[in-house]
């Protein structure tokens, strides 16, 4: 890996990348490589985005759909963190728990979150429970795996020192494994956050009564590509903000531990 680029150069290169992307988009729309209703100009999509912030579509404005989607996402993601991280740490310390959980976990983690949609719809309907379950299914595995790996690779001398001082098993997990595993846990949270957000949109495409995913489905049914593209852009921006926040937390934790 080469040396890190200055911030100004990174911003410039990012701007160049965006300019190329929008240039290709504009050129393709201008040449009408697809009918204009299916490939609108970028400014048509921007105009529709502003209109959607003022006019309801499928019962909500754009920001209303986003708030509902983010609320759903936070419920599923926080639940995945609260269950996955402690369980991963405990599995890293208690071998008997590792042997009990791992076979079931390894069998279920390869089931795509979208495959849980029929069960979620049947069990919970389109209310809170269904989407929360699907988001949890997507966000839970990375939380558990990275917490487990972090706990397993903690230096033995730290554990031995804590045991020498009379620390109990749970205290070792809380005061030794958890702090030492934080970089791995945060890295897992970044993966988990992305997987959970993608799972949310998949859930809303099939089993929801509001949200960005539903807005996109209704836009597709109305043959209004600009609404679909507004939804895609909103999804991408929210996902980027989530990743930037977690990346900042990861950098801060590494800096604190470095000191």
Second rung of CATH, namely the architecture of the largest domain: Orthogonal Bundle
CATH H-tier superfamily of the largest domain:
MetI-like
Provide the CATH top-level class of the largest domain: Mainly Alpha
How many helix segments? Answer: 10
Fraction of residues in helix = over 70%
The number of domains: 2
By CATH, the topology of the largest domain is: MetI-like fold
Q: Which residues form runs of ≥5 with pLDDT under 50? A: none
- In terms of structural class, how would the helical and strand content be classed? mainly alpha
What's the gyration radius in Å? 22 Å
Distance between the termini: 25 Å
Compute the number of strand runs: 0
What summary fits the major beta sheet?
none
The pLDDT mean sits at 83
């Amino acid at each position: 890996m080469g040396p890190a680029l200055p911030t100004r150069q990174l911003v410039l290169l990012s701007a160049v990348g965006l300019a190329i992307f929008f240039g290709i988009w504009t050129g393709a729309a201008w040449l009408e490589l697809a009918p204009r209703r299916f490939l609108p100009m970028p400014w048509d999509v921007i105009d529709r985005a502003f209109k959607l912030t003022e006019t309801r579509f499928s019962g909500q404005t754009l920001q209303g759909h986003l708030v509902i989607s983010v609320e759903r996402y936070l419920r599923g993601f926080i639940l995945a963190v609260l269950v996955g991280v402690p369980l991963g740490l405990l599995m890293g310390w208690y071998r008997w728990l590792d042997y009990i959980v791992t076979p079931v976990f390894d069998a279920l983690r390869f089931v795509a979150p979208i495959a849980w949609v029929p069960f979620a719809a049947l069990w919970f309907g389109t209310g809170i429970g269904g989407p929360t379950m699907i988001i949890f299914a997507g966000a839970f595995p990375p939380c558990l795996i990275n917490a487990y790996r972090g706990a397993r690779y903690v230096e033995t001398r730290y554990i031995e020192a804590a045991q020498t001082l009379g620390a109990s098993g749970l205290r070792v997990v809380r005061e030794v494994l958890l702090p030492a595993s934080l970089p791995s846990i945060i890295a897992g949270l970044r993966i988990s956050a992305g997987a959970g957000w993608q799972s949310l949109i998949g859930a809303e495409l099939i089993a929801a009564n509001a949200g960005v995913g539903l807005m996109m489905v209704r836009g597709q049914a109305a043959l209004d590509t600009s609404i679909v593209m507004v939804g895609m852009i909103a999804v991408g921006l929210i996902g980027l903000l989530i990743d930037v926040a977690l990346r900042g937390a990861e950098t801060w934790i590494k800096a604190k531990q470095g000191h």
